[in-house]
Design goal:
Helix content: 25-40%
Largest sheet: 11 strands, mixed
Shape: globular
Number of helices: 8
Radius of gyration: 24 Å
Strand content: 15-25%
Mean pLDDT: 84
Low-confidence stretches: 228-273
Order of helices and strands: EHEEHEHEHEEHEHEEEHH
Protein backbone atom coordinates (compact mmCIF):
# COMPACT_ATOMS: atom_id res chain seq x y z
CA UNK A 1 0.00 0.00 0.00
CA UNK A 2 1.49 3.33 -1.08
CA UNK A 3 1.57 6.32 1.26
CA UNK A 4 1.50 10.02 0.39
CA UNK A 5 3.09 12.71 2.57
CA UNK A 6 3.06 16.48 2.49
CA UNK A 7 6.52 17.68 1.46
CA UNK A 8 5.96 21.39 2.01
CA UNK A 9 5.98 23.67 5.04
CA UNK A 10 7.81 23.06 8.28
CA UNK A 11 6.34 19.75 9.46
CA UNK A 12 8.46 17.48 7.29
CA UNK A 13 9.65 14.92 9.84
CA UNK A 14 7.04 12.25 8.93
CA UNK A 15 7.83 12.64 5.22
CA UNK A 16 11.59 12.35 5.73
CA UNK A 17 11.19 9.35 8.04
CA UNK A 18 8.90 7.47 5.65
CA UNK A 19 11.08 8.20 2.62
CA UNK A 20 14.31 7.17 4.36
CA UNK A 21 12.71 3.95 5.62
CA UNK A 22 11.44 3.13 2.12
CA UNK A 23 14.83 3.76 0.50
CA UNK A 24 16.63 1.66 3.11
CA UNK A 25 14.14 -1.16 2.48
CA UNK A 26 14.91 -1.07 -1.24
CA UNK A 27 11.54 0.46 -2.14
CA UNK A 28 10.78 3.36 -4.47
CA UNK A 29 9.98 6.98 -3.58
CA UNK A 30 8.48 9.71 -5.76
CA UNK A 31 9.84 13.17 -4.98
CA UNK A 32 9.75 16.69 -6.44
CA UNK A 33 12.76 18.33 -8.05
CA UNK A 34 13.34 21.71 -9.67
CA UNK A 35 12.52 20.27 -13.10
CA UNK A 36 9.92 17.48 -12.89
CA UNK A 37 8.85 14.85 -10.36
CA UNK A 38 11.27 11.95 -10.06
CA UNK A 39 11.07 8.29 -9.06
CA UNK A 40 13.96 7.38 -6.76
CA UNK A 41 15.79 4.27 -5.57
CA UNK A 42 18.94 3.60 -3.56
CA UNK A 43 21.72 3.90 -6.15
CA UNK A 44 23.72 1.20 -4.34
CA UNK A 45 20.95 -1.43 -4.30
CA UNK A 46 20.87 -3.19 -7.67
CA UNK A 47 17.47 -4.75 -7.01
CA UNK A 48 16.01 -1.35 -6.13
CA UNK A 49 17.39 0.19 -9.34
CA UNK A 50 15.90 -2.70 -11.32
CA UNK A 51 12.59 -2.09 -9.56
CA UNK A 52 12.76 1.53 -10.73
CA UNK A 53 13.38 0.48 -14.34
CA UNK A 54 10.55 -2.04 -14.15
CA UNK A 55 8.15 0.58 -12.76
CA UNK A 56 8.89 2.83 -15.72
CA UNK A 57 8.81 -0.01 -18.25
CA UNK A 58 12.40 0.57 -19.25
CA UNK A 59 15.40 -1.66 -19.93
CA UNK A 60 18.92 -1.67 -18.55
CA UNK A 61 20.09 0.11 -21.69
CA UNK A 62 18.57 3.30 -20.23
CA UNK A 63 20.28 3.66 -16.82
CA UNK A 64 18.96 6.40 -14.52
CA UNK A 65 20.91 9.49 -13.45
CA UNK A 66 22.02 9.87 -9.84
CA UNK A 67 21.02 12.82 -7.67
CA UNK A 68 23.40 14.06 -4.97
CA UNK A 69 22.92 16.67 -2.27
CA UNK A 70 26.08 18.79 -2.68
CA UNK A 71 28.66 19.63 -5.32
CA UNK A 72 31.39 18.21 -3.09
CA UNK A 73 30.04 14.67 -3.68
CA UNK A 74 31.15 14.86 -7.32
CA UNK A 75 34.61 13.43 -6.68
CA UNK A 76 33.24 10.65 -4.47
CA UNK A 77 31.25 9.23 -7.39
CA UNK A 78 33.19 10.39 -10.46
CA UNK A 79 36.81 10.27 -11.53
CA UNK A 80 38.97 12.22 -13.98
CA UNK A 81 36.65 15.21 -13.80
CA UNK A 82 38.08 17.89 -16.12
CA UNK A 83 38.42 21.51 -15.03
CA UNK A 84 35.78 22.69 -17.49
CA UNK A 85 33.36 20.15 -16.03
CA UNK A 86 34.04 21.48 -12.54
CA UNK A 87 33.34 25.00 -13.73
CA UNK A 88 29.92 23.91 -15.03
CA UNK A 89 29.13 22.13 -11.77
CA UNK A 90 30.19 25.09 -9.65
CA UNK A 91 28.11 27.49 -11.73
CA UNK A 92 24.92 25.49 -12.27
CA UNK A 93 24.62 23.20 -9.23
CA UNK A 94 22.18 23.15 -7.59
CA UNK A 95 20.24 23.41 -10.82
CA UNK A 96 18.99 21.76 -14.02
CA UNK A 97 22.34 20.45 -15.25
CA UNK A 98 23.20 16.75 -15.54
CA UNK A 99 26.87 15.87 -16.06
CA UNK A 100 27.90 12.54 -17.56
CA UNK A 101 31.18 11.58 -15.90
CA UNK A 102 33.56 8.65 -15.65
CA UNK A 103 32.29 6.62 -12.68
CA UNK A 104 34.56 5.68 -9.81
CA UNK A 105 35.50 2.06 -10.51
CA UNK A 106 35.54 1.20 -6.80
CA UNK A 107 31.82 1.86 -6.35
CA UNK A 108 29.67 -1.19 -5.72
CA UNK A 109 26.59 -0.35 -7.74
CA UNK A 110 24.74 -1.47 -10.84
CA UNK A 111 22.74 1.24 -12.58
CA UNK A 112 22.46 -0.63 -15.88
CA UNK A 113 24.51 -0.49 -19.06
CA UNK A 114 26.45 2.68 -18.29
CA UNK A 115 29.73 1.87 -20.13
CA UNK A 116 31.63 3.04 -17.07
CA UNK A 117 29.89 6.40 -16.75
CA UNK A 118 27.45 8.00 -14.34
CA UNK A 119 25.11 10.96 -14.87
CA UNK A 120 25.12 13.25 -11.82
CA UNK A 121 22.99 16.22 -10.76
CA UNK A 122 22.35 18.39 -7.69
CA UNK A 123 18.68 19.44 -7.80
CA UNK A 124 17.66 22.98 -6.89
CA UNK A 125 15.06 21.82 -4.39
CA UNK A 126 15.89 22.38 -0.75
CA UNK A 127 13.73 19.65 0.77
CA UNK A 128 14.86 17.05 -1.76
CA UNK A 129 18.52 17.93 -1.12
CA UNK A 130 17.89 17.47 2.60
CA UNK A 131 16.41 14.05 1.89
CA UNK A 132 19.46 13.20 -0.24
CA UNK A 133 21.74 14.17 2.63
CA UNK A 134 19.92 11.56 4.73
CA UNK A 135 19.69 8.75 2.17
CA UNK A 136 22.87 9.25 0.19
CA UNK A 137 22.94 9.25 -3.63
CA UNK A 138 19.67 8.20 -5.26
CA UNK A 139 19.09 6.82 -8.72
CA UNK A 140 16.33 9.10 -10.00
CA UNK A 141 14.47 9.17 -13.29
CA UNK A 142 11.37 11.15 -14.28
CA UNK A 143 8.24 9.90 -12.50
CA UNK A 144 6.32 8.53 -15.46
CA UNK A 145 5.85 5.44 -17.56
CA UNK A 146 8.35 5.34 -20.39
CA UNK A 147 7.01 7.26 -23.36
CA UNK A 148 4.49 9.22 -21.30
CA UNK A 149 4.79 12.89 -20.24
CA UNK A 150 6.77 13.52 -17.06
CA UNK A 151 4.70 14.10 -13.94
CA UNK A 152 4.37 17.73 -12.90
CA UNK A 153 2.62 16.98 -9.61
CA UNK A 154 2.39 14.03 -7.25
CA UNK A 155 -1.10 13.03 -8.41
CA UNK A 156 0.03 12.63 -11.99
CA UNK A 157 2.94 10.48 -10.81
CA UNK A 158 0.63 8.41 -8.62
CA UNK A 159 -1.77 7.83 -11.50
CA UNK A 160 1.03 6.51 -13.71
CA UNK A 161 3.11 4.54 -11.21
CA UNK A 162 0.45 3.45 -8.67
CA UNK A 163 1.49 0.74 -6.20
CA UNK A 164 4.97 0.28 -7.68
CA UNK A 165 6.03 3.21 -5.45
CA UNK A 166 6.00 2.92 -1.65
CA UNK A 167 6.11 6.63 -0.73
CA UNK A 168 4.88 9.68 -2.62
CA UNK A 169 6.18 13.07 -1.45
CA UNK A 170 3.78 15.88 -2.36
CA UNK A 171 5.75 19.04 -2.99
CA UNK A 172 3.01 20.73 -5.00
CA UNK A 173 3.24 21.68 -8.65
CA UNK A 174 6.85 21.82 -9.84
CA UNK A 175 8.00 25.26 -10.94
CA UNK A 176 10.49 24.15 -13.60
CA UNK A 177 8.79 21.80 -16.02
CA UNK A 178 11.69 21.53 -18.46
CA UNK A 179 14.08 18.59 -18.18
CA UNK A 180 17.67 19.15 -17.20
CA UNK A 181 20.32 19.90 -19.79
CA UNK A 182 22.71 16.96 -20.18
CA UNK A 183 26.41 17.54 -20.83
CA UNK A 184 28.95 14.77 -21.40
CA UNK A 185 32.30 15.68 -19.81
CA UNK A 186 34.04 12.36 -20.46
CA UNK A 187 35.72 13.55 -23.67
CA UNK A 188 38.27 16.20 -24.57
CA UNK A 189 35.64 18.97 -24.47
CA UNK A 190 32.19 19.11 -22.85
CA UNK A 191 29.50 18.03 -25.32
CA UNK A 192 25.79 18.79 -24.99
CA UNK A 193 23.74 15.62 -25.27
CA UNK A 194 20.37 17.25 -24.61
CA UNK A 195 19.40 20.90 -24.34
CA UNK A 196 16.85 21.42 -21.59
CA UNK A 197 16.31 24.11 -18.98
CA UNK A 198 19.84 25.49 -19.55
CA UNK A 199 20.58 26.91 -22.99
CA UNK A 200 23.75 26.42 -24.99
CA UNK A 201 24.44 30.14 -24.59
CA UNK A 202 24.32 29.86 -20.79
CA UNK A 203 26.76 26.96 -20.83
CA UNK A 204 29.17 28.69 -23.20
CA UNK A 205 29.13 31.82 -21.06
CA UNK A 206 30.94 29.70 -18.44
CA UNK A 207 32.83 27.25 -20.67
CA UNK A 208 33.15 28.64 -24.22
CA UNK A 209 34.42 25.35 -25.65
CA UNK A 210 31.16 23.49 -24.94
CA UNK A 211 30.19 21.75 -28.18
CA UNK A 212 27.14 20.08 -29.70
CA UNK A 213 26.82 17.25 -32.18
CA UNK A 214 26.36 19.85 -34.91
CA UNK A 215 29.80 21.27 -34.10
CA UNK A 216 31.59 17.97 -34.59
CA UNK A 217 33.43 17.65 -37.93
CA UNK A 218 32.15 14.94 -40.20
CA UNK A 219 34.66 12.11 -40.83
CA UNK A 220 36.49 12.54 -44.14
CA UNK A 221 35.27 9.23 -45.51
CA UNK A 222 31.65 10.19 -44.77
CA UNK A 223 32.08 13.52 -46.55
CA UNK A 224 33.63 11.81 -49.55
CA UNK A 225 30.79 9.29 -49.66
CA UNK A 226 28.21 12.08 -49.51
CA UNK A 227 29.94 13.99 -52.27
CA UNK A 228 30.17 10.89 -54.45
CA UNK A 229 26.50 10.13 -53.87
CA UNK A 230 25.57 13.72 -54.65
CA UNK A 231 27.51 13.51 -57.90
CA UNK A 232 25.72 10.28 -58.83
CA UNK A 233 22.31 11.75 -58.08
CA UNK A 234 22.93 14.94 -60.09
CA UNK A 235 22.42 14.43 -63.85
CA UNK A 236 25.37 15.54 -65.92
CA UNK A 237 24.70 18.30 -68.45
CA UNK A 238 26.37 16.37 -71.27
CA UNK A 239 23.94 13.48 -70.76
CA UNK A 240 21.00 15.66 -71.83
CA UNK A 241 19.98 16.00 -75.44
CA UNK A 242 21.07 19.30 -76.96
CA UNK A 243 17.50 20.56 -77.17
CA UNK A 244 17.10 20.17 -73.40
CA UNK A 245 20.08 22.35 -72.54
CA UNK A 246 18.79 25.73 -71.27
CA UNK A 247 20.59 28.89 -72.18
CA UNK A 248 22.74 30.29 -69.37
CA UNK A 249 20.47 33.29 -68.88
CA UNK A 250 17.22 31.44 -69.50
CA UNK A 251 14.98 31.52 -66.43
CA UNK A 252 13.37 28.31 -65.27
CA UNK A 253 9.68 28.10 -66.03
CA UNK A 254 8.57 26.61 -62.71
CA UNK A 255 9.56 27.87 -59.26
CA UNK A 256 11.30 25.39 -56.98
CA UNK A 257 9.16 24.48 -54.00
CA UNK A 258 10.90 24.88 -50.65
CA UNK A 259 11.26 21.61 -48.81
CA UNK A 260 9.76 21.20 -45.36
CA UNK A 261 12.32 21.36 -42.57
CA UNK A 262 13.06 18.10 -40.82
CA UNK A 263 12.73 19.94 -37.53
CA UNK A 264 8.97 20.10 -38.06
CA UNK A 265 8.76 16.48 -36.95
CA UNK A 266 9.06 16.76 -33.22
CA UNK A 267 10.17 13.72 -31.29
CA UNK A 268 8.97 13.35 -27.69
CA UNK A 269 11.67 13.26 -25.10
CA UNK A 270 11.59 11.70 -21.67
CA UNK A 271 13.05 14.14 -19.13
CA UNK A 272 16.05 13.38 -16.94
CA UNK A 273 17.12 10.30 -18.69
CA UNK A 274 20.43 9.13 -20.10
CA UNK A 275 21.41 9.79 -23.71
CA UNK A 276 20.03 6.40 -24.78
CA UNK A 277 16.69 8.16 -24.97
Amino acid sequence: MSERFDFTGDELAPAYRAAVDAIEAGDLVVLPTDTVYGIAADAFKADAVQRLLDAKGRGRDMPPPVLISVVESLDALATDVPENGRKLAQEFWPGPLTLICHAQTSLMWDLGETQGTVALRVPDHENTRELLSRTGPLAVSSANKSGQPAAMDVYDAEEQLAESVAVYLDGGQVTGGEPSTIVDITGDTPRVVRVGALSLEQLRAVVPEVSTEDDEPKPAEDKQADEAQSAEDKPAAEDKPDEEQPAEDEPTEEPVEASKSETDDEKPTDPDVRPAD
